Amino acid sequence: MAEMVAVIGYAPEMIRRTLARARRCSLVACMVVFSGCMTQLQQGFDGVRPGMTPDEVRAELGDPSVRIPPRLDEHGARLDGGRWQYADNLSSLANAAAFPEFVPDRVWVVWFDVDGVVQGTRRPIRVEDGGDGSVDQGGETPLFPSAAPPRSR
Fold it and tell me: Rounded to an integer, what is the distance from CA 131 to the centroid of its chain?
């Protein structure tokens, strides 16, 4: 042990504790940063109203993680105005690329009409809410449903 301290200048235990402390600090910093982003998205999403332009939505929410272009009929006329998705993960990004007509349940969505203004919005759909999107999620992110049965049984 004394030889190792003489060679590297630190005891191995001291290095291990320093690295563990750095990992904990990094984890806490990431949690703070990401929770702030989600809160900002939730608050901004409440400000998105039908009739807003894409520039107004971008000012409220920032750039979307996915932009689905408008659907066109056989003559090139717009059928809709497309949609923007926020808070996508790797899976929903891949689904958006492969199946643009599919709207993932776990993302925030803004739909545009043929005139290019907001037609409607949808918060993430949680399994606990029955999956119809009509229930206010209270700003919670729909991660995974609880494995525990409800206490009302």
Answer: 18
Instruction: Say how far apart CA 6 and CA 12 lie, in whole Å.
Output: 12
- Got the DSSP string for 97-134? HH-TT---TTSEEEEE-TTSSEEEEEPPPPGGGTSSS-
Give the start-to-end residue ranges of the domains of the chain.
2-129
d(CA 109, CA 121): 6
Q: How far is CA 124 from the centre of its chain?
A: 9
Rounded to the nearest integer, the mean pLDDT of the chain is: 76
Question: What is the arithmetic mean of pLDDT over 61-88?
Answer: 92
Residue range 86-93: mean pLDDT, rounded:
90
Rounded (10°) angle between helices 12-46 and 54-61 = 140
108 neighbors 122 (Cβ within 8 angstroms): yes
Q: Return the pLDDT at 3.
A: 67
